[in-house]
Amino acid sequence: MTNCLPCSQGVLWLSVSIVVLSVFALVVDVYLNGNHMTGFSNGVRRLSFKIGQTKPSKMKFGGPHCKARCEVYPRTKDVKRFKVPDDKVPWKVPFPEYSPPSFTTETVLSGPYYADPDICSGKGEITKWNEIDGRVSRVSFEGKYEVVEGLPLNPVGRTGLKHRGCLGRWGPNHAADPIVTRWKRTDDDQIVKGEDGKPIMQFVSVQRRDNGEWAIPGGKVDAGEVVTDTVLREFGEEALSTKEISQEEKYKAVESMKQFFTKGIEVYEGYVDDPRNTDNAWMETTAYHFHDHDGTKVGQFNLHAGDDAMAVQWMDCNSAINLYASHKSFLQEAAKRIDASW
Ligand code: BGC
After folding, report:
1. CB of 215 closer than 6 A to ligand 1?
2. Domains and CATH numbers, the chain
3. Which of helix, strand or coil describes residue 129?
């Protein structure tokens, strides 16, 4: 008995020291590395934020969702939106003459795996708005959206078109975007600077097959999938075309990608000004930034355009860049983060 007291005190001290050391290590890690992302393959999304830093800020687009009010709906010739002037975008501004047409593509109506039932024609019902509905997230990054006459309302405002267009989900359709960057370098490995004297950032850009526009190689989050897995999968499918290489090459590519992709920083999460948006269905995304400071990591990646892309390339970033949806604003955030030329 007499020996037990010092022994249990020792155990107590040891436990206290382990806890103190772990907390110290965590604080140092967060302080040095910022809000990095870990645990890619374990299916858990874990983000820690640098001390004193808050979640990524919401961004303003050039006017309230301009692209979501484009005159002719994408991939159609004659589906025209009801014209919505800038000041009439917010739902709270009265617009009594507003009578937008309804449009949902035949593909979506045929009920593919990624689509919701056509609740307007009484086929099925959705009751879990603003909630996780089984394996589907109906939660918006923009906060609670309204549901009027059984249909969710676009959180930014009117788009001039009702129902889902070519989007599968009513309400938010979640996507993920990997912004993979490096510094632009000369042949003799010197970093190239822009007119503002700052280093020029290049990002992996894909040319979308649907409209020929250049974009970040992102994609939709599958039901039940965690965003960090979507980022890795989409980058592989669209920019590395891992589908078309041998098993061995694929394994190597995926392993080096996984390592590089553990260091992602979330630069944006929220609504996307996407031309496919409607009054009742819209795109939202989470964009992660992966920067290869010394150019040695992503340099190993063999860029190959995949299924949904016509081409892939390293593209210089600056304020004149013209990209799909609101991708330019995500890149601007990434450039700010590493103090790149813009
Ligand atoms: C694209 C993403 C994009 C999102 C919202 C997805 O289909 O793949 O890159 O950010 O739509 O526009």
Report:
1. yes
2. 174-337 (3.90.79.10)
3. coil
Angstrom distance (rounded) from CA 332 to CA 262: 22
Contact by Cβ (8 Å): 229, 46:
no
Closest ligand 1 atom to residue 330 Cα is 10
Is 325 close to ligand 1, i.e. is its CB under 6 Å away? yes
For residue 232, the CA-to-ligand 1 centroid distance in Å is 14
The CB of 216 under 6 Å from ligand 1? The reply is yes
- Taking the centre of ligand 1 as the mean of its atom positions, its distance from the CA of residue 29, in whole angstroms, is 32
Ligand 1 centre distance from Cα of residue 331 (Å): 14
CB-based contact 117:169 (threshold 8 Å):
no
Helix (H) or strand (E) holding 313: strand 309-316
Task: List, in sequence order, every residue forming a beta bridge with 208; answer none if it has no partner.
Answer: 309
The whole-number mean pLDDT for each consecutive block of 10 residues of the chain, a chain of 342 residues, reads: 44 59 43 33 26 40 83 96 97 98 98 96 93 96 97 98 98 97 94 98 94 95 92 85 68 78 92 98 97 81 81 95 96 98 98
Do the beta carbons of residue 65 and residue 160 sit within 8 Å? no
User: Residue 182 phi/psi, 5° resolution?
Assistant: -150, 170
Residue from 140, 177, 330 whose mutation best tests the ligand 1 pocket (most atoms within 8 A of CB): 177
Q: Chain centroid to CA 87: how far? A: 28
CA-proximal residue: ligand 1, atom 12 (nearest):
274
Query: How many other C-beta atoms can be found within 10 angstroms of the C-beta atom of residue 109?
Result: 16
pLDDT score for 144 = 98
Return the pLDDT at 295.
84
Q: State the distance from the centre of ligand 1 to the C-alpha of 327, rounded, in angstroms.
A: 8
Closest listed residue to residue 161, CA positions, set 67, 226, 245: 67
**Closest residue by Cα to residue 179 from 62, 285, 58, 320:** 285
CB of residue 219 inside a 6 A radius of ligand 1: yes
Q: Other C-beta atoms within 10 Å of 154: how many?
A: 25
Is 163 within 8 Å of 104 (Cβ atoms)? Answer: yes
